[in-house]
TrEMBL record:
Gene3D superfamilies: 1.10.357.50, C2 domain. Keywords: Cytoplasm, Endosome, Exocytosis. One of its GO terms (cellular component) is late endosome. Coiled coil: none annotated. This is BAI1-associated protein 3. Belongs to the unc-13 family. Its main location: cytoplasm. One of its GO terms (biological process) is exocytosis. Residues 38-226, 925-1048 form the C2 domain. It comes from Syphacia muris. The keyword Cytoplasm applies. Residues 794-910 form the MHD2 domain. Residues 561-679 form the MHD1 domain.
C-alpha cells in the first residue's frame, strides 16, 4: 500500500500539467517525504513512467475585451473571435520519440525522468477538438442572429458582438492537447464586415485539412475564404493572443492579455480577458494491485506530506496549520487535477486527512477552518455513495475522539493552563460546527443536538470522577474518608468557572449546574449509606466522639472541621435549585462544638509556634537588600490561615458566632503582640537598649531594621476586619441590633488597640535610634544659626545634612517605606526643639529694643524650609498632610512668625486672643458685665456707661464680694494719654448696679486697633484687691466709631473671663525682650494692682 501510494505520487509528477517546479525537484521532495531508498525509488519511478499518460484538455473561457480599435464608419466594430491549439510537431514524430525512450527498461532514473518530462496524449481517431461553437447566419432582409451547433476539430469561433468596442462573450471552449510542453494556444479577434457569408463555414472547411503543418496561416485564410463572392469584402483584423500551454499553471490562469499585432502594418489596440486551465478527461488504466480510489490516495498524500513537514519543523503538531512547502502543494494540486477532483472533493479530502490526525495533537482551530471550507463547498449529489460513506466514517471517528477528550477534560485541559483551555474551546467549536453542518446531516442519519451530546458526556464524566474519588479516599476512619472525598469534590468544583466560561461561549449548557448536580446526587446517596451504619466504627459514632466537649486528640475533631468546611464550600458552588442540606441529625451542634474547640486551641498552639519560629529565626537574603527574617512569614501566614479558616466556618448559633468571633480576634491580637514583644526583647538582648552611642555597629543596625520590618508586616496582617463576616453574627430578638453594634465596636477596638501598640513599639525603637543624634544635630544647628550672613543657608546646613543623609541612605535600603517615613518623622521631631532652642537663645542676646533680629529669624526660617523640603523629598518622604499634623512643626512655625513680629503687634495679638476667648466662652463662670457705649463723632468723645454686673464670683469670706470696675483703653502703647477710670465700690453683693458714665476723648483718625478693657475687682481693706474677672469691647463694635456698628446707643452684655494664656508664647516672648521698654512696660501693666 505504501509503495503504491509512492508510485501514485511519482506518476502525478511524471505527467505534471502546467508550469511549476522542475520534475527533479518534485521527485526529490517525494523521496524525502516517503523516506524511500534509492533502489526502490528507481524501480517505482520506472513503473510510473510505463503507465499510460492521461488525456490532457485545455479549457478556455472567453470573458470579454476592451478598448478595441474601431473599424466601421460608425465608430464601432462587430468583433468575433477564433480560438484553437497549434501543435508543436506532428504526432508521428512525437510517437517515435516516446517509443524510443520508453522501451528500454535499463535506463537510468534521471534519464527516465527527463524523457517523460513532456506529457502527451495518445493518438486516436477522435476529432482533435471536441465540443461545439456558436454559428451566426445572416440574411439580407432580416438581420437576426441564429445560433446552431457546428462541429469543429481545430478552430472554434465565438459569437459576433454588434457595434461595440468592449464586447462581452462569457463563452466556454475546450480543446485536446497533444503535447502540453510544445503546443500553443492561439486566438484572433476580427471585425465582421460581410453578413452574407458566415465565418464558421470557413472554419468548418478548414477543419477538413489533415496536415497540421502551417495551421497558423489558416486563421487568416478562414476569414478571407468566407468573403469570396462578396464584393471582395474582407474582415478586419483586431488583434491576436498567443499563449504557450506549458506556461499555464496547474491552478489555472485568469487575467487580461494585451492584443498583439499580426504584422507591422496591423493596427491593434485593447486587451482581452481569458480564463484558462488544464484538466484530464479520463483516468488512465494501470495494471497494478492498487485498490485505493483517487480520493483515498489524495487523503493519504495529504497526511504523508503533513507528517513530513511537522517532522521538519520540529514544532508541536498543535502549531501546524497546513504549512506545506511549494513542492507538496504542487504535487497535491496536480494529483487533484489528474484525478478530476472537484473543490468539494479537495475540501473533503483535507477534512478526512486532518481529522484523523487528532491523536497526534493537530490543532482544533485548524480543523475548524478546514471544516468551514468543506461546508462552504458542499453541494448535494456531488459525492458518490462510497465517498459519502468515507466522509461519514471521518465524522464518526472525530465525534468519538471529541467525546473522549471531553470526558477526560480535567486531565487533558487543566484550567490553569490557558493554552489547554483555548484548545478545549476550539474543540467544542469544531464539534458543534460538525454536528450542525449540512455535510454531517447528509451523511449521518441519526443525529443528536450539540447540547444533548455535551451534557451527556459531562454527566458521565462527573459520575466517573466521583467514583474514582471514592476509591482514592478509601480509609478505615470514616471521618477522614469523608473529608478526603469532599476535598476532591470541592477542588473539582473550584475549576467549574473556567470550564463554564468556555462552554457558555458555544452553548447554553451550565457546566457547574450539570457537574454539581451529579456530585450533589451521588454525595447524598453516599452519606445516606454511611449514616445507616450504627456501629461504633461508623460515621455517625465517629463524628460524635470527635466533637465531644472533653479534650482529646486533635486529629479527630480536625477531621470534623474539614468536613464542615468542605460542605460549606461545596454548598457555595451549588445553585439555588440545587441547594441541599447535608445537616443530618445533630450535625450543626457537632460542628459548633468542634469550632469552639478549635478557637480554644488558637492561642496555645499559636504561642508555641511563634516561640518556635523566633527560636529558628534566620535572615532572608533579598536582592533589594531589604531586611526581613523567616519568623514574620510564619506569623503572618498563621494569622492569614486563622482568618481564612474562620471566614469559611459557619456557626449555626448566631450568638455563639459573635462570641467566638470576639475570641478569635482577641487570640490573633494577643498572638501578634506576643510575637512583637518577643522580637524586640531579642533585639534588646543583642545590645539595642538604653541610650545608644552615636556609632551603632552594622550588625545591630541591620538587626534593628529586620525587627521593625517584621513588626510592620505583622501589623499589616491585622487588617482583616472586613473578612470576619460580622453581618452573619446578628442575633434574633429585640436587642439584636444593639448586641451586634456592641460586638462590632469591641472587635474594632481590639484590632485598633493591637495595631496602635505595634506602631508605638516600632516608633519607640526608632526614637531611641534617632535621639543618639541629638547632641551632634544641636552642634550643627548652632553652627548654622550663628554662621556669617554671607554664607548661604544650604552651605551652612551641608555638614548636618550630609551626616543625616549618610544615616538615611543606609536605612533606606533596609527598611520598608512606612518604617523609613517613621525614621524621617522621628529625626525631624528631634531637630524641631533644637531649632526652637536657637530662637530662644537669640532672643536673650538680641539688643534690638523693639523686636527680634529679623535677619536671624529669616535665616532660621530659611533653614527650617530647607530641612522641611529635605525630609519631604518631593513627596517621597514625609507627606504634606503629616507635616501639617506635627504639633512641634506647627509650634515652630508659629514661633518663627512671632519672633519676627514687632512688640506692638504682639501686644495687640495678645488682646485679640483674650477677646476671642471671651467670644467663644460657653459658660458664665465669672459673671456678666452690662455696659452701654457710643461715640460722638462731632466732639470725638467715647461715652461708656457701666450699668452693672451679675453673678460676680464671691471672693470674701461671707460668700459675697465688694465689686468695682476699672475701665481703660488698650493697648496702652496706643492709648498712652487716655485716663483709667474706676466705678464706685458696691459692698456685699454679687450683682452690683453702678449706673456710672465715663468719657474718653479719642479721634478715629489717630488710632487703629483698640479695645475698652473692663476689669472687675473685689475691694479689700487690709489686703490687696482681688481680681474677679475681665471683659473686652472692641472700639469698632461701638456705635458711631466703627463703620458697621451704626449710631444708636447699644447695650453690651459681656461675659467675664479669666485669662487662660498667662504663660502663652506671646508673654514668654515678650518676657525675653528685656531690652524692649515697651515689652517690659506692657508686662508691668499686666501686674498692676487696682
Amino acid at each position: 500500500m505504501f509503495q503504491d501510494l509512492y508510485a501514485e505520487a511519482l506518476y502525478t509528477i511524471v505527467h505534471k500539467l502546467g508550469c511549476s517546479a522542475s520534475h527533479k525537484k518534485l521527485i526529490s521532495y517525494v523521496q524525502q517525504a516517503f523516506a524511500m531508498d534509492d533502489s526502490r525509488h528507481k524501480r517505482l519511478l520506472f513503473r510510473a513512467t510505463e503507465e499510460k499518460p492521461p488525456l490532457i484538455l485545455l479549457n478556455v473561457i472567453l470573458l470579454e475585451a476592451r478598448n478595441l480599435i474601431a473599424k466601421d464608419i460608425n465608430g464601432f466594430s462587430d468583433p468575433f473571435s477564433m480560438l484553437g491549439v497549434i501543435p508543436g510537431k506532428t504526432a508521428s514524430a512525437r510517437t517515435t520519440t516516446n517509443n524510443s525512450k520508453n522501451n528500454s527498461p535499463d535506463l537510468d532514473a534521471n534519464e527516465i525522468e527527463y524523457s517523460m518530462s513532456i506529457p502527451s496524449s495518445p493518438r486516436c481517431d477522435k476529432p482533435r477538438f471536441g465540443g461545439s461553437f456558436r454559428r451566426t447566419a445572416f440574411t439580407k432582409r432580416q438581420k437576426v442572429t441564429k445560433i446552431e451547433e457546428i462541429p469543429a476539430k481545430y478552430i472554434k469561433a465565438s459569437s459576433v458582438q454588434k457595434k461595440t468596442l468592449n464586447p462581452k462573450w462569457n463563452e466556454r471552449f475546450q480543446f485536446t492537447v497533444d503535447d502540453a510542453n510544445i503546443d500553443e494556444f492561439h486566438m484572433d479577434i476580427w471585425d465582421l464586415d460581410d453578413e452574407e457569408r458566415s465565418v464558421v463555414d470557413a472554419v468548418a472547411s478548414l477543419n477538413q485539412v489533415m496536415d497540421l503543418k502551417g495551421l497558423t496561416r489558416y486563421f487568416k485564410q478562414v476569414a478571407q475564404s468566407a468573403r469570396v463572392g462578396s464584393d471582395d469584402c474582407v474582415d478586419d483584423f483586431l488583434g491576436c493572443v498567443n499563449i504557450k500551454i506549458k506556461d499555464i499553471p496547474s491552478t489555472g490562469l485568469e487575467r487580461w492579455f494585451p492584443l498583439e499585432k499580426r504584422s507591422e502594418r496591423s493596427k491593434v489596440s485593447g486587451e482581452v480577458k481569458l480564463k484558462l486551465w488544464l484538466s484530464t478527461r479520463e483516468e488512465p488504466k494501470r495494471d497494478d494491485d492498487d485498490d485505493l480510489t483517487d480520493v483515498e490516495q489524495h487523503i493519504k498524500l495529504i497526511q504523508q506530506f503533513s507528517l513530513y513537514e511537522m517532522k521538519q519543523s520540529a514544532d508541536a503538531a498543535s502549531s501546524f496549520y497546513g504549512q506545506l512547502c511549494d513542492a507538496a502543494e504542487i504535487i497535491l494540486e496536480q494529483h487533484a487535477l489528474q484525478s478530476d477532483l472537484t473543490p468539494l472533493h479537495k475540501a473533503f479530502c483535507a477534512w478526512s486527512a486532518y481529522s484523523a490526525m487528532t491523536n497526534i495533537g493537530i490543532s482544533y482551530s485548524y480543523l475548524y477552518d478546514i471544516l468551514t471550507n468543506l461546508v462552504l463547498h458542499w453541494e448535494p449529489l456531488v459525492l458518490d455513495k462510497t465517498e459519502e460513506n468515507m466522509m461519514a466514517d471521518s465524522f464518526v471517528l472525530f465525534e468519538q475522539r471529541c467525546l473522549t477528550a471531553i470526558a477526560e477534560h480535567r486531565v487533558r485541559f487543566p484550567p490553569r493552563n490557558h493554552k489547554a483551555v483555548d484548545l478545549l474551546s476550539d474543540l467544542l467549536r469544531c464539534y458543534k460546527l460538525m454536528l450542525e453542518c449540512n455535510p454531517y446531516k447528509a451523511c449521518i442519519s441519526a443525529t443528536r443536538s450539540f447540547n444533548a451530546s455535551i451534557k451527556t458526556a459531562l454527566e458521565s464524566c462527573a459520575e466517573e470522577f466521583f467514583t474514582a474519588s471514592m476509591k482514592e479516599s478509601k480509609n478505615d476512619d470514616p471521618c477522614c474518608e469523608l473529608a478526603q472525598l469532599l476535598q476532591h469534590i470541592v477542588v473539582a468544583c473550584s475549576k467549574s468557572a473556567s470550564y463554564n466560561q468556555v462552554l457558555s461561549s458555544v452553548s447554553d449548557i451550565d457546566y457547574a449546574q450539570v457537574t454539581h448536580g451529579v456530585f450533589n446526587r451521588m454525595l447524598k446517596e453516599y452519606l445516606c449509606v454511611k449514616l445507616m451504619d450504627d456501629s461504633p466504627s461508623g460515621l455517625k459514632a465517629t463524628m460524635n466522639r470527635a466533637s465531644a466537649k472533653e479534650d482529646g486528640e486533635i486529629v479527630p475533631f480536625l477531621n470534623v472541621l474539614k468536613i464542615h468546611l468542605a460542605l460549606n464550600e461545596f454548598s457555595q458552588y451549588q445553585t439555588s435549585k440545587q441547594k441541599t442540606s447535608f445537616s443530618f441529625d445533630n450535625w450543626n451542634s457537632l460542628f459548633d462544638r468542634a469550632i469552639s474547640k478549635w478557637v480554644n486551641q488558637i492561642l496555645v498552639r499559636g504561642f508555641a509556634r511563634a516561640d518556635f519560629s523566633c527560636h529558628l529565626d534566620t535572615d532572608i537574603v533579598r536582592n533589594d537588600k531589604m531586611k526581613f527574617s523567616t519568623s514574620h512569614h510564619d506569623i503572618c501566614h498563621m494569622i492569614e490561615q486563622i482568618t481564612n479558616t474562620w471566614e469559611r466556618m459557619r456557626v449555626s448559633d448566631p450568638k455563639l458566632r459573635l462570641t467566638l468571633t470576639e475570641k478569635v480576634v482577641q487570640n490573633i491580637c494577643k498572638l501578634a503582640e506576643f510575637y512583637v514583644d518577643k522580637i524586640f526583647a531579642i533585639l534588646a538582648s543583642e545590645g539595642f537598649q538604653g541610650e545608644l552611642q552615636l556609632f551603632v555597629p552594622k550588625g545591630i543596625l541591620a538587626r534593628f531594621c529586620t525587627v521593625i520590618n517584621n513588626a510592620e508586616k505583622v501589623r499589616r496582617s491585622l487588617l482583616f476586619y472586613d473578612r470576619l463576616n460580622m453581618d452573619e453574627s446578628s442575633v434574633n430578638g429585640q436587642n439584636k441590633n444593639q448586641e451586634k453594634r456592641k460586638g462590632k465596636t469591641k472587635i474594632e477596638q481590639q484590632i485598633d488597640t493591637c495595631t496602635t501598640y505595634i506602631s508605638n513599639q516600632i516608633e519607640t525603637a526608632i526614637d531611641q535610634l534617632s535621639k543618639r543624634f541629638a547632641t551632634l544635630l544641636d552642634k550643627h544647628l548652632t553652627h548654622f544659626a550663628w554662621s556669617p550672613e554671607t554664607t548661604p543657608a544650604e552651605v551652612a546646613l551641608k555638614p548636618m545634612t550630609e551626616v543625616v543623609d549618610n544615616e538615611l541612605l543606609k536605612l533606606h535600603r533596609m527598611l520598608l517605606h512606612k518604617n523609613f517615613v517613621r525614621v524621617l518623622i522621628s529625626q525631624f521631631n528631634v531637630m524641631l526643639p533644637l531649632i526652637m532652642k536657637c530662637l530662644d537663645e537669640e532672643q536673650g542676646l538680641n539688643k534690638n529694643p523693639l523686636q527680634s533680629d529679623p535677619k536671624f529669624c529669616a535665616r532660621l526660617a530659611e533653614g527650617t524650609a530647607i530641612l522641611t523640603e529635605f525630609y519631604h523629598a518631593c513627596g517621597k518622604g514625609i507627606s504634606g498632610e503629616t507635616l501639617r499634623n506635627l504639633p512641634l512643626y506647627q509650634e515652630l512655625l508659629k514661633k518663627l512668625e512671632l519672633h519676627r513680629t514687632p512688640t506692638e503687634m504682639l501686644i495687640g495679638q495678645y488682646y485679640r486672643n483674650l477677646h476671642e476667648q471671651q467670644l467663644y466662652a460657653t459658660s458664665c463662670d465669672y459673671g456678666i458685665l452690662n455696659v452701654r457705649a457710643y461715640y460722638n463723632v462731632n466732639s470725638e468723645t467715647l461715652v461708656v456707661d457701666v450699668i452693672g454686673a451679675k453673678q460676680v464670683i464671691p471672693l470674701d469670706s461671707n460668700g459675697l464680694s465688694d465689686p468695682f470696675v476699672v475701665i481703660e483703653l488698650v493697648p496702652r502703647l496706643t492709648f498712652s494719654d487716655s485716663p483709667t477710670f474706676k466705678t464706685r465700690i458696691i459692698n456685699k453683693t454679687l450683682s452690683p448696679t453702678f449706673d456710672e458714665t465715663f468719657e474718653f476723648h479719642i479721634s478715629t483718625r489717630d488710632y487703629g486697633f483698640g479695645m475698652i478693657h473692663f476689669i472687675v475687682m473685689d475691694h479689700d481693706f487690709l489686703r490687696s484687691n482681688d481680681f474677679a474677672g475681665e471683659a473686652f469691647l472692641q472700639l469698632n463694635d461701638v456705635p458711631g466709631y466703627g463703620p458697621a456698628a451704626g449710631t444708636t446707643l447699644k447695650q453690651f452684655n459681656l461675659i467675664l473671663i479669666h485669662p487662660q494664656n498667662k504663660g502663652s508664647s506671646i508673654i514668654s516672648l515678650l518676657e525675653r525682650r528685656k531690652n524692649d521698654a515697651r515689652a517690659q512696660e506692657f508686662l508691668r501693666s499686666l501686674n498692676t494692682v487696682y
